[in-house]
Amino acid sequence: MSAVTRMVPSDMDRNRWTLKTWTADELPRILDLMGTGPHAPPELFAEAIPFAVNDTTAGAENELQAVVIGDRGKIDFPRIIECSNYFQNLRKRAEAGETSRRLLDDLQAYLDDNPDRVWENSWVRFSRARLSRYADAVFRRDLLADKSAACGPERSDACKFTPVFRGEAQVRVPVSYLLKLALADAVGVSPEIHPTVKTTGERLMGHFLNDNSSPEIYSFYPVPVIRSFGMGNAIARETLKRFLLSQLLIQYANRRFGLIDSGQRVVIYFAPHTHVRQKRLNDLISDAFYRELFMSPCLCGWDRGEEKHRYMGLCHQVLSRSQLHAVSQLREAGIITRNLVVMPSLSNLSLANNGTHISLGSRKLTALMADPSSGFGVREEKYIGDLAIKIIEHFLPLFVGTYSAAPYRLDFWDFHPEKALGFLPHELDFTHLRMIWRRWKKKARLKFFGRPVTPFGPKALDQWFSRAFGLKGDFVQDFRLLDYFVAVKSTDRSPALDGTADNQVRLKQDLSDFGVFDSAMPVYLLYRLREFAAMGFSGFEGRYYSQFENIMTDMGSAAGFQTLITALAYKYILGGRVTHGDIPDDPTLESERRQVFFGTAIGIPTFYVHKKTRNRFLHRIINRTRRIRLSRRYAGYIRVYNEEYRQALLSVIREDGPDLIEMMGAEEILRDLSHRIEDPKGCSAAGRLTSGILESAGSTHPMKLDGEEFGLASERFYRSTLRKRQIREGLDLLEIDFKNMDANAILGRDIFRDSLAHILGQESADAFLRWVRSEVTEERIDETELIRLIHLTLLSIHHDIRKAEQSEFR
Length: 810
What we know:
By secondary structure, the chain is an alpha+beta fold.
């Protein structure tokens, strides 16, 4: 420990507010706006902190995987490929000898060899006559070039969605839009629907988005994050019920629109990775054809859908270009040392990765921002918000693998740095990138006669070498965080989080000049400020969640812990204990704190911090970390064990936030998190997901499977076992809700007597659910009963919305 205490003097406990344009009286003024002061009693000070007790609302955006199951001749996706100009031109060129026939043969094999009959992100086709009049009216409006102009022209690509087959008008749409159509049909199929149910359904339609390849569904209402609601349990409950409604709508579409009868069975589910077959296809086609096949047309969620569609195409082009630029950066970093490299595909798949974003809003900050005379405006929101993000980034390794994960198996031939390291060259400084790569190779035991070795290039040679010398590759607990551009790196001249206005505009321009980003895109960050001027609330968005094994326990605990550390960051700032000067805006220091996050995703046991780091906040955490020592390999650096660092973070939270922990009732959250860290195999999300995947594969360890075997087993587990389990969990919630609705109906409260009688007649909601429960799980429920269940679920959600709106945050 003595080596560490000589790093830099620690003055974390001084009350300072001295950086840049902030004057000495700024802190008392801000404290006064918060309803407290520098000399207020500790309990009153804690209650006044934004995101603390009774101040927070939450919302979530969930991305889902979508597949259509059926024979090749009946599914839209393979038909589109075979009929495409790309495929036909490739065939003619191969027949004329202008190009190798191998590419055509591989593409043909992709279409022919699909024993599971699962077609990733396929669109669906069905007769337009199957739509109710109301659903057809919704569809017609969504085909407009500008939905705000009801009498305006249609989109220029409207014919793609309204083909004619054998003289019959059809609907052809992605699964993401199918969800909205199904909801519109379910509330419009009968004129006798209860008005509350129809109004609720119409309100929820706008929450089914589709800007990327996957369906995206965001919260139906802001959820209060309060102790009496179980902190994060309320947002987990809302998410689970939203997921269940989505499952019911897909089952309804499969039956009502005749999809099953025509050989198209749609399935949606939580899954963090791009489908194995989609990756294979991506290596065979051009980036432009990939966008044609997989980029969403953005039919709903935006008034000008074609503009949004073009923007998403830009995002795909930029990210594809970025991964090519990463190769040159790896050479500059000295990680690529030979001329033979495996060039990444011109088409990048990162936009097809799926995760969850949890946003928190502060009622106090939102009210101050909404009042022009409050004295708390854009300048204060930005300055404090950027500092809070820098503080919170130190705690983010606690989330990785514990609450969510994306288990992934890399074969030896996947260990080309230009492939395995993904976007890390754009996210970390070269020093930390080299450290991570060396430690990762050591973890994966990539050695040949005691010397580190990586794949040579030709896959057949690498596979032979792997078998001959027992080089198996590696297993990581959250590969999505490596395979997706989760956080851009600041430049020397343009820090992302220095608290100044337009800092991210300047950073985007710098990154555009380097060719790794585009100024039209939002800055990617692990924890992103949600500014009042853009969002209508003031808060933050957590973008680091991959796959939850259990929505209630994993997501609920994660949301509660996210609220706690956000409140703790504001306690540090408003207490004058942390300023921007304590966490300087330097790309190397930014990389120094973020390396721990990415190393945790990989599963690297140690990381290195410079003993003279200028990050005083990190210094304070390291001083509370056990088993640290000076590095023998890297002069001037301290070696830190990841697990000990995470335990130190928990100690810092308990030491600095006991009042917040008590007010929020968060002690159980911390105990649970400690168990997840200490027993990762049995308690963490990564451990439980991995066990489920291995059980699905009939194996006992990830390294006993090759990468493709593990990937396919993962997809089966997510698509079948986990999806059905989550449906059952959602039905458990409905059972509680329906019993309460029955009781309220008997007592004549609210609208329940009238609405339940309208939907069910004399039958109780609880009895109806018990009758149809197994039919829902096995997807055998009758269409008539399915409509009734959807209407009851909408009624339950209406009650949730009313309860949240009427909540007084007690």
